[in-house]
Automatic annotation (TrEMBL):
Name recorded for this polypeptide: Uncharacterized protein
Composition-biased stretches (Polar residues): 136-150, 159-170
Organism per entry: Prunus armeniaca (Apricot)
SUPFAM superfamilies, alphabetized: Homeodomain-like
PANTHER family: TRANSCRIPTION FACTOR MYB8-RELATED-RELATED, TRANSCRIPTION REPRESSOR MYB6-LIKE
One GO cellular component term noted in the UniProt record for this chain: nucleus
Amino acid sequence: MRKPCCEKKKTNKGAWSKPEDEKLTQYIQKHGEGSWRSIPQAAGLHRCGKSCRLRWVNYLRPDLKRGSFGEDEEDLIIKLHALLGNRWSLIAGRLPGRTDNEVKNYWNTHLKRKLIQMGVDPNNHRIGHNFGHTKSFGSRINTNDQPSENSHSDDPLLDSTSEPESNTSCSALPDLNLDLTIGLPISFGY
DNA sequence: AACCCTACCAACCGCAAATCT
DNA sequence: TAGATTTGCGGTTGGTAGGGT
């Protein structure tokens, strides 16, 4: 049914070239974000809109921080992951200048391993040994068996009903401050 | 110097939600 | 209201840089 996103003429794939970056940046600076579907043509790019959006959001946006993550950022990511699961965009939203892709990559390459080394299951933040069995609890807000009858607030951090395992997370991580407000990042000791 | 292995990160893919007609 | 289209998200992959042998 759905047409593939890049069904039309040949579109470039793979790494972006500098001229492509420049075209996209110039176009967005002039016209703003949005209408990703039409941007490639309007900007003279042989890319699909999806690819343009990704490139802009993850790499070209001027407010991106880039560079390595600080310890406070690490703590915050771990903490937010315990609360939200793999909802990378929400987690990234709490980290100014960071993208969901960046956070996700950092989690998968650094933090996951770090937690495992500490004896903490990165999937559910429990201290234990059976890693890898439990499914990550936060893949989507609304899973198939959970018709979202109770409307969530926009911010799941303020919506305790949206977190299916928040209680168990709390019990699993007694030293986590799981207040539903995220204040200054504190270092918490696993 | 050449090869292999590992870690990292940019980008793609498929799906679901949101929006439009 | 239903179907079509667009947007956004999370999982995964592929290229490559760097270190070890």
